[in-house]
Design brief:
The complex is a heterodimer.
Chain A lengths: L2 H42 L3 H5 L2 H32 L21 E3 L5 E3 L15 H4 L3 H11 L12 H10 L1 H27 L8 H22 L2
Antiparallel strand pairs in A: 1-2
Chain B lengths: L11 H6 L2 E4 L2 E4 L5 E7 L2 H6 L22 H16 L6 H5 L8 H17 L10 H23 L6 H28 L5 H24 L3 H20 L3 H10 L8 H39 L3 H10 L5 E5 L8
Antiparallel strand pairs in B: 1-2, 2-3, 3-4
The chains are: A mainly alpha, B alpha+beta.
Chain lengths: 233, 333
């Protein structure tokens, strides 16, 4: 492959990486609003008994919302990235003709791993990405979420409900004091929960946030593809 | 020897309908991928841009005050340059950093630009932290002085009875300067807190050194060496910025400003205003740099001497960019 053609493909891969990293950040920032809406709705129906049930409430009501959101949104982002990647680079292989060389029907590109890709001069182009090993280009939602789970999820859920004691004491008194205590407990929980979710989902300073792990997956694929491209002679 | 240049207007229709695409300084047939023509800037470009202290980002900015327009001829030439760049689908003025085709900026202008870059770094002194202690500044001054001396050597080479050895010598020493600036860019980009002004200044200094090396070698008719330098330095530029994406660079640059804590919208604004334009500029500069090797090869194939070629394009007074048809193209035969 000529330097110019290699460079053109390289450019497409770099642009893809940059565009997808950016899109990931924007997508998660936007959809976090929806996640929080859903969480807030759930919290509105939180009863005193839920407050008193401690972590069981989080496990029963909040974690499923969180997990569904994380899975869906990561899936959407990676599927879009995969779709865009598969477009790179239709027609790139048959355009490797150097100045003065008229492409012949039996021109071939020999890849580093020995595979030979025949490219007809008039036929449809071969996408560069189809020439890459599947392990290079397959982006896995499960992989990202697996890493996400081992680094952040569950272990650091807000201990929350720090006002249990207060609620417990108020319970003995009943009536409006109990309701006020519930309000305060929910408010406190909400603040903690939002901070935790933001940090775990969209905080760019947190290397283990969902947005960073998804971007890392995109970068991994880009780096592997570039490496493969360099190996194509 | 007459050089069969075309003007960009002849390819405008092909570019507009998509049958031709520009990549770096090459015009290619989008169907077959064959090179149709090579782009080459002329002496008009450096003459127009000689007074520009800070490179405008987009071609259209040239007409909005970036360049002092003091007469009608200059206005016409500038308008023609902007139109040509637009028709060739240049989004940024990255090509002004490295030239289109073989740079014809001339060594004196390059030296002025280099001194401008050095001045910008000196002005950053107050912002600099520990890595910019006096010792480092002294080292930087020495490196800039070396590069500047090389450019003076190249500028005065024509006064020698045998200019070629002098030009070769200058090119050789410029390689050292370029290597130094490249290493500084690499180091700066790896830091968790990136000073963008510094990265930009070192990058421009590196581009300038590499570009001038090629100009020296073409002038000295060392075409094989010029081709090799064009291709290798282009590959180096690619490698420098490929590893870092706009999102990461934005975070690192933001970490170096203020208290390092920035909201999502602040990061976005920084990325759109500073980081993406810079990377886009670099992208165009890199493509222009690496594709100049193909132009030099074409000159060799045609038997055109480097010094003769440069003389011809420097003398051009009307067209800012000329096209050298590829040998396989009907117009190039």
């Amino acid at each position: 492959m000529k330097t110019v053609d290699r460079l053109a493909l390289r450019k497409q891969l770099i642009e893809w990486r940059d565009r997808q990293c950016q899109a990931t950040e924007e997508h998660f920032a936007r959809s976090f609003v929806l996640l929080w809406d859903e969480v807030e709705q759930a919290l509105e129906t939180m009863r005193v008994a839920d407050v008193l049930s401690g972590e069981r409430y989080t496990e029963r009501e909040i974690i499923p919302i969180w997990e569904r959101w994380a899975k869906n949104e990561t899936g959407v982002v990676l599927a879009e990235a995969q779709r865009e990647l598969s477009k790179i680079s239709q027609g790139s292989i048959e355009t490797t003709g150097s100045e003065g060389q008229v492409p012949s029907p039996d021109r071939r590109t020999v890849l580093a791993d020995g595979a030979i890709v025949a490219t007809a001069s008039t036929g449809a182009g071969v996408a560069f990405v189809t020439l890459l090993p599947a392990s290079v280009t397959t982006m896995s939602t499960g992989g990202v979420l697996g890493l996400f789970g081992t680094t952040t999820a569950v272990i650091a859920w807000p201990a929350a409900l720090g006002l249990f004691a207060v609620v417990g004491a108020a319970a003995a008194l009943g009536g409006s004091r109990l309701l006020n205590a519930r309000e305060r407990a929910v408010r406190h929980y909400k603040v903690q929960l939002r901070a935790w979710m933001k940090r775990s989902a969209i905080d760019s300073e947190n290397p283990d946030s969902l947005v960073n792990l998804t971007q890392a997956e995109i970068r991994r694929v880009a780096a592997a593809s570039l490496q493969h491209l360099d190996a194509v002679r | 020897m007459s050089i069969p240049f075309d003007v960009p207007r002849q390819f405008a229709a092909g570019l507009a309908d998509g049958s031709l695409v520009r990549f770096g300084a090459l015009l290619k047939d989008s169907g077959t991928g064959q090179v149709v023509a090579h782009l080459q800037e002329t002496g008009v470009v450096p003459r127009l841009l000689s007074g520009v202290s800070r490179l405008p980002l987009a071609p259209t900015e040239l007409l909005s005050g970036a360049v002092a327009i003091d007469n009608n001829l200059k206005l016409r030439q500038l308008t023609s340059l902007v139109q040509t760049l637009q028709s060739l689908q240049y989004a940024t003025m990255g090509i002004a950093l490295v030239g289109v085709g073989v740079s014809v900026a001339g060594f004196a202008l390059m030296n002025r630009r280099l001194k401008g870059i050095e001045g910008e770094i000196s002005n950053l002194k107050t912002l600099m932290e520990k890595q910019f202690r006096e010792l480092h500044l002294r080292e930087l001054r020495a490196r800039f002085a070396l590069a500047s001396t090389c450019l003076e050597r190249a500028e005065n080479a024509h006064r020698f009875r045998e200019p070629a050895p002098e030009l070769r010598g200058a090119a050789e020493r410029l390689a050292e300067s370029s290597g130094f600036f490249k290493a500084e860019v690499k180091f700066a980009l790896k830091e968790e807190r990136v000073n963008m002004e510094l990265v930009r200044s070192f990058t421009y200094a590196m581009l300038l050194c590499d570009t001038t090396r090629v100009e020296c070698l073409v002038e000295a008719n060392e075409m094989d060496a010029a081709m090799c330098v064009a291709e290798c330095s282009g590959a180096d530029w690619v490698g420098l910025f490929d590893e870092i994406d706009a999102v990461t660079l934005t975070r690192r640059v933001s970490a170096a400003t203020g208290d390092g804590q920035h909201s999502y919208s602040e990061l976005r604004e920084l990325r759109l205003r500073l980081i993406e334009p810079f990377l886009q500029l670099m992208n165009e500069a890199t493509e222009a740099g690496i594709t100049r090797a193909a132009l030099i090869q074409s000159l060799v194939d045609r038997g055109i001497e480097g010094s003769e070629y440069l003389q011809r394009v420097r003398k051009e007074e009307k067209e800012p960019i000329l096209m050298l048809p590829a040998l396989t193209h009907p117009a190039g035969r």
